Amino acid sequence: MKLLYMLKKQYSRFCLREMVVVAQIVLIVLLFTPILSKLDRLLSIDQLAKNIQGPALFFQADDYYFMPEFLDAQEYSVFFDEIRKCDAVQEVGQTSVAGCAINGEGASVYFYNDALLKHLRLQTANYKSEEDAIPVLINQSLTQKYRIGDHIILDNGTIFFPVSSEYQTVQFQVAGVLKNNDYYYSLVGGASRITLESIGYRDDGLCMIALGSFNIVPVLDIDPSSLLFIETECSDTVNQINASIGHLGHAESIEVMRKNSLNNILSTNPLPFVTAVLMTMLCLASVCSYAYVSVIRLRENFAMYYICGLSRKKALAIAIIALLLLLIISLLISLVFLPLSVDVTQYNGLPYSISMIVSLFVFAFAIIFTQYSSIDPIKLMRKGD
Amino acid sequence: MLIELNQIDMKYNKGQENEVHALKQASLSVEQGDFVGLVGASGSGKTTFLQIIGGMIRPTGGDYFFDGMNVRAMKDSQLARFRNQKIGYVLQDYGLLRDRNVLENVCLPMMFSHMKWHDVENRAMELLTELHIDHLKARRVNQLSGGQSQLVAVARALAMNPPVILADEPTGSLDSNTSAHLMESLIKLNNAGTTILMVTHNEEISRQCKRIVRIRDGRLLAE
Ligand SMILES: Nc1ncnc2c1ncn2[C@@H]1O[C@H](COP(=O)(O)OP(=O)(O)OP(=O)(O)O)[C@@H](O)[C@H]1O
Ligand SMILES: [Mg+2]
Questions:
Q1: What distance in Å separates the CA atoms of residue A169 and residue A163, rounded to the nearest whole number?
Q2: CA nearest B106 in A: which residue?
Q3: Residue A17: its chain B contacts at CB < 8 A?
Q4: pLDDT grade, residue A166 (50/70/90)?
Q5: Does residue A178 contact residue A110 with C-beta atoms inside 8 Å?
Q6: CA–CA separation, A227 and A196 (whole Å)
């Protein structure tokens, strides 16, 4: 069989129809991929949050201070050794930014939870100004011992975490995240005043989507203990804790917080979802109508192929291969142009793009298959008599 | 015997309300080199009969042997090859592919064979020349007259040089000149050894056949 010739004949005269279909798919993939990526990120939060075991503390990155400006290498290595002794600390070392005070000396040191940064998909290297910087990793159990805002004292094998005026810290910043979760909150405080500055969701490691309507802690001037996420889903426990905290704070189930956050993201950011659905519909309609029209256009050829000695199976195979070629071409062109649409080094939506195209064509295959199967070539050629 | 049909029965939509018993116990033997004219009223089952012989539809009863091969027992793929290599079929309404030109239409059966491209084109041109329509080779088929279309359909049927030609009213839409010309070509082909079965309404045409088989209501009448 002259397969190439037969394939060519499956396409329209100057391949205009096919070019339109391919271009449409490529365009949609290029537009769709970043959205899919985002969608993936958003939806995975829900998945990730299911693994939450408890809140973790970390010292939020900050660009203003850098430890070596205040301490020489000898001094801060001693300092690190001391932190290392703390049973809540897994690893310690210099990081470019992260802040707290040392023994009431005014110097600021910045360190952060590296595991967290990794989770946030940040380029750690961007945050370390020194090649050999070792991150401070803070054990999760830390927060089971100390709530945010408690004094955590380095000298006694714990990290001293100055809040009160006693230590005269000018300013500090502390942020908490839920383990394995992209949400974090940030508290900015001075000697006696702690402010909930933001609660957010870090997106792409580049920008932060503020969840403005986040309403677990509505007050600005709050006590540090006011932000407390609890693992339990039992509302009685939550109520009990709330009662004991009194007006000083507010406790919330992690599960509830997670749902609120996700709802917030969905409601403040519906565009990706709406666009994704619309684009899928559009592309589906286009590919399916192409498949359908091409069957209608070619069914008499199909009948004549049969009469002239091609089995139905082979004729169907030709139609399928022709469509498959379009699929492959669309995929290849999409891949070539993908760098225009997303940063491919950071891109994690490839399976989505591929599965989108493939599922589109599964529909098209189904149409071609059922339409061709319903053709009776002999009956079709009788219409003339 | 080249073609042996034994008690062939054909029911369309078998077992359904709209069942049509198109052929009833039709038996026919055709020798190699025969020229059989099939004559019968409209709806008597002529086309059905040809299509069973051509392996395009499967009869619902009876036996069919072609050159000793049991056609009814063939698998779909074998039957397709049988149609491609043993049968040249001229459809009642030409059945030309409208998206192609004359040359491509004639080439169609050869596309399913293992012939080389070069041979395919040579063969097609040879046939067009033989039927005096080589000047039409680049024409789209919707720009052909009825007679020209019929000749292209005949050329396509001859493409694979099949031992049997089945022609369904090939002269039906032709004027007497063209139809005489077509008959001439068919007779020449028959003289060269090709077996021909031809449906016709025209008494004058049927007289040129070596045998005449009459069909009435799906039954073959005694010759
Ligand atoms: N695919 C089909 N489904 C149902 N009935 C059919 C089908 N094909 C043919 N028939 C019926 O079978 C009978 C024989 O049809 P056939 O086409 O063989 O007749 P014909 O002798 O070729 O007629 P004509 O001279 O008009 O071409 C007719 O009654 C026709 O309606
Ligand atoms: Mg007929």
A1: 7
A2: A308
A3: none
A4: very low
A5: no
A6: 9
